[in-house]
# Entry
Amino acid sequence: MINSSMPFACIFVPDFPVEALLRAEPELRSRLLVVLEGKAPLQKVFAANENARHAGVDPGMTKIQVEACAELVLRARSLSQETAAHAALLDCAQSFSPRVEDTACDTIILDLTGMELLFGPLPKLARDLARRASDLGLQVNVAVASNPDAAVLAARGFSGVTVIREGNETEQLGSLPVETLFVEQNPEESEPLLETFNRWGIHKLRDLAALPDAALSERLGQQGVYWQKLARGAVSRTLVPVEPPLIFEEAIELEDPVFLLEPLAFLLARMLEQLCARLESRALATQELRLQLELNNGWHEDGIPWSDVGAGILTRAQARQHFQRTLRLPVPLLDAKTFLKLLQLDLKAHPPGAPIAKIHLAAEPVRPRAAQNGLFLPPSPEPEKLELTLARIAGIVGEDKVGSLQLLDTHRPEGFRMQRFTPGEPQQKSDSIQKSEDLVTALRIFRPPAAVTVTMQDGKPAFLSCHRRKEIRGEILWAAGPWRSSGDWWEQEGWAQDEWDIAVQGENNIALYRLVRDLLSGKWLLEGEYD
Amino acid sequence: MSSFPLFSTEAAHRPVAAPSVKLPALSERLSALPKLAEVTPASRLEVCPTPEMVSSGIAEIDALTGGLPRGRLTEVFGSASSGRTSLALATLATATQRQEACALVDVSDAFDPVSAALAEVQFERLLWVRCGVSEKDFSPRRHRVTEKKYLDNERPEAPVEQALRVTDLLLQSGGFGLVMIDLGDVPFKTARRIPLASWFRFQRAVEHTPTVLLVITPAPCTQSCATLLLKVQASGKKLSAVSSRLSPDPAHARLLEGFQVQGELLRSRLGRKPVQSVTVAFATKVRTG
# Structure
């Protein structure tokens, strides 16, 4: 039985630079992928996936050497994608244990003390860890052992999920090669030691573990004893926990610039899924998404403008390098599909204007919305659906023409402004509605006001004709006014007007209008119709 | 003479197609034939439940129609200065005070926020969609820049088409207590050109939802899709009321102190009652902010 008093788990990502790239392009997993580093033309192979290594690619080879193989997919190393992958790894670990050690960029150690009560037995927990990492786009090795270093050795040495029972460390780690001990060491320090072990005929950890302590100490000193303890899985140390910062960012550097919104949407979908999976693993949601696009301005290699190369929505490059859009949501959401649709609609309304070379997406984390709808509450639109609907409507009528309105403290005509429509949560259905005794006579506004020709008689308007609305023409039966109003005279946009209420005889009925004389321009305008 | 027989008696006595299996019984063969559609007795037909009625905000109209039905289309029509917008504002105010989210699809961009504020409409619960193309959309600069639809020499979408698309989106989104389409200033010819299929689609979309779909038109155009058809017009008393209230030497600009509006129910498909035209009058009042 495993002693569950102090179990530790280690998550190790083999070929971390490759995995970081595969998060953005998972379709390359079955291909021969090679990661290059360095400035052209001196690029060298930094990492390669297992398929590429089987094909004979080794780190350190030059780009010219590997280019001979047409099946290889070459990608430049992306530090931003590695940072995002490391953050995702930390999020994965943090979703299982609050005590997490950031051992290396590809290695995380978790203290699983007491976690069995929450997540079940250790083998199941280890499998869940691997599955969660897979959801985040990372293929990892997970090992559980009674001490951190044994877990690290097992995770680096064995693929998949490994659970080492307490007391079996020496036996289970014994099959690993001695080189496993020196993965993180400087090659200059480890190579002489490895050479010595090789001369002694020690190739496996079990060979090193079986050596007598005193004789090993005499020959290699305390460092040798430490390596032997490590090989036996008997090193005990204190975990150095870290508190991962709540930064949720994803980035993709593109080999070829993207011209159209459709392929961009595919890339955004992957990034959003990763972001949402990371947020979900930390039990968070987001209320603000920041999209930053690095644009490839200038000219194509063949001397053709980018705008001529790409057809569609993206248009001629303008003098800018970065394009940024911020999506603010009224409520915290965590739905990648909704985010994608909102971003698509936003980008359709505000096209970037140049080919896209790099995509950077960040989410501002907030606590998720906790709302309980009641059976007897008034109907209210779902926030996710409402946001999509509003974005779609804004695409039809324009952004400034949809929303709720707010009256401004002014008597100026059109003294209001549009704002985002965010209906509050209904509190309780109130049966008692305050009904006013008198109904209000409504005015229908003419936007813009209709210019009219007015004939005056005895200081009052007597005849009216409108050029824009032919049906408004006739004798003014009654007129009352003027009612003078003015404001903002201290500013450039001052206004002053005389207002009349008039009744005009139409073809079938009498219509009531509000007639206005603009005192600054002297024009007569029909502001609206009483209805 | 040929000795060959003209036909063989042996062959004539042989059965043409000997049945290898026993023929099924007649009843079984009949049962295998396709049947006509089964006739369901009228007593077993699913009866459409009576919709929940909500207040329109005007007691006289509620008394006339029983309120506005949820999940149905209600049409209010009337000419200019007939009081249809006053009725619409009263309905909006009541619905927002019930804490329901409301949407106004304003085809002619004619909504007056000051009147709505005086009618006590709660703006935070009202989604105002202003259809139409603004002046800046037609500016020459706009044509030069990147908008694809203008570059392709396509005409901008007409306000009515925008309104229909917006209404579709709002009804699909769901959750609104009241969706109002204001076609009041749209010419009658244009309003009649709206395909009947659109109104049927809207009617189907709101069916079995708590949404009241209210359409304000200059003349009836939803045809059989409307569950309630209400006509409003200025009553005969209005002229005298106006003239009596007009001050001979007006120091104040306000002409109107009141509005006499007559509402007439032309159609109601809520019950199996014969169509009746019932008239009711209500008054509105000008209030200054």
User: Anything to note?
Assistant: Chain B has one domain: 57-245+255-285.
